[in-house]
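Summarise what follows for lecture notes:
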Amino acid sequence: MSTASSRQAWTLALLLALPACDRPPAPPASTPSMEVAFSPHGGCTEAVVAALEKATGSVLVQAYSFTSAPIAKALVEAHRRGVRVEVILDKSQRTEKYSSADFVAHAGIPTLIDAKHAIAHNKVMVIDGKTVVTGSFNFTKAAEEHNAENLLVIQDPALAEKYAANWKLHAAHSESYAGRGSEAEEPLLKPREKGVESPR
C-alpha cells in the first residue's frame, strides 16, 4: 500500500470514530430510593396514604388485617379518579366484623380472598409499577397507634415488577369477594383495636 493510500485509510478510520467519541456517556441506571417509617405514632399510615394519593395508573394490594379507615378511603379515592385498584386479602377478612374489605368491595374495587394458605400474611402495595410499599405494618389503626412496626416505601421499577408478578400468582388462586350487605359504609374500628393486635 502506498503512503498516500495509507494516510487516506487512517483519515477515514478517524472520521468514522469521531461520532462515537462525541456521543454523551450513557446515563447511569436509576438508583432505587426509599423512605422508612416506624410505629407506634411514626407516620406509617400517613406514608401509605401519601403514596396512594400519587397513584395515577394502578394499585395492587395484598393485606392480612385491613381495618384502617384512612387507607381504605385513600384506595377508594384512587379508584374514583380512574386508578385501577385491585385488592387481595386474607380469608379472615370475610368474617371480621368491621373489616374494610366490605368498604372497598362495595365501592367497586375488585377484591379477592386468598384462602389457599394458613394465613395470607403479606402487607404489600405496588403502585404504578414502580413503587413498592411493604414491611411488617398491617393496614390497621392498632398497627399505627399501639404496635412496634416498620414500613418501607421503595421507588424501584425492577423490584415492583417482582412484587407484581407475585401478586398475580396469588390472584390466580384467590376467590372473588363481593362484600357483605349492600352499601359502601364507612370502615369502622374494631373494638379489639383499642389494644394490641395479636402478634401474627
